[in-house]
Design goal:
about 280 residues, alpha/beta, Rossmann fold, 6-stranded parallel beta sheet, 3-stranded mixed beta sheet, 13 strands
Length: about 280
């Protein structure tokens, strides 16, 4: 049996399609601990997808800290307190590429315009909590640092999906620092397939970058979708990570011939691009 914590996650929806015998529980449930106790004597795989909603990260205010802490860390603590370790087969924790922003900014007291340091710091804390619990109880654990996902039109945080929706609705897009940052984009169904592979196979516990290993300039995605100059709002001098591409060497050694969904082909399948000019999406 698989128990997934995090009901509204786009990854949870994909996992629910890939996995059999799956129970999905909301991290916001007022009776989460009570629901978990029902399964405390059953052998399970535990997938922890919960975190503070990514699309709300930018606007965290004073009144949001308590809920941010609850959904980031406290829920995990409650989960571990209400399940018998001996009955947990494997744990997969869905972390984020945001953890990589911490080392380069650990001494930066300024910045954090969009609360990315805060997000990354709590993700690292959650990783430590999950790995510590797993090691002490001899449970196979996989920390999955997922990069930018696409493939779910209902995902409010996906940059690719947001671009597609803005193009369809003829809305303006925000371009940060000229779009010179490089990002790795992975289809959410590919992430779900990778999780399924890890659950079914005997793989040594470790940290894994979950991405394609290919990076694309943000400005090239804007060009690919033929956004005109008057449809772009430029935001400059914003503190952000310039290069965020998965180091998926360990992952590829395990998956071998895995074929990732191509982001360029995906975008073209969703949006009719009228321009006859050939747009090259540079890959790094």
């Amino acid at each position: 049996m698989n128990i997934i914590i995090g009901k509204n996650s786009s990854l949870t929806r994909s996992l629910n399609t890939e996995l059999k015998e799956t129970v999905i529980l909301s991290a916001n449930s007022s009776n989460l601990t009570g629901k978990l106790k029902v399964y405390k004597n059953k052998k399970i795989n535990l997938i922890i997808n919960n975190f503070y909603p990514a699309y709300k990260i930018n606007t965290i205010g004073n009144k949001d800290y308590a809920n941010f802490n609850k959904l980031s860390l406290k829920v995990i603590i409650d989960i571990f307190a209400n399940l018998k370790p001996k009955n947990i087969n494997k744990i997969i924790y869905t972390s984020s590429s945001s953890v990589f922003i911490i080392p380069q900014n650990i001494n930066n007291f300024d910045g954090d315009t969009f609360n990315r340091y805060l997000q990354g710091a709590f993700k690292i804390a959650a990783e430590a909590l999950v790995s510590n619990f797993s090691r002490k109880n001899n449970i196979k654990c996989y920390i999955m640092r997922v990069f930018n996902t696409f493939g779910d039109p209902n995902c409010k945080f996906s940059f690719v999906e947001k671009l597609i929706q803005h193009k369809k609705r003829n809305k303006k897009v925000k371009l940060i620092n000229g779009g010179n940052s490089i990002r790795d984009f992975i289809h959410v169904s590919d992430v779900a397939k990778i999780y399924k592979f890890f659950l079914k196979n005997n793989i040594k516990p470790n940290y894994f970058d979950i991405g394609t290993g290919n990076g694309y300039y943000i400005k090239d995605l804007i060009k690919l979708l033929d956004f005109k100059n008057n449809q772009i709002t430029n935001l400059n001098n914003i503190d952000e990570r310039e290069n965020s591409v998965a180091n998926n060497t360990k992952l590829i050694k395990i998956l071998k011939n895995f074929k990732f969904v191509n982001v360029k082909k995906y975008i073209k399948s969703k949006v009719s691009i009228k321009s006859k000019n050939k747009r090259v999406l540079r890959r790094f």
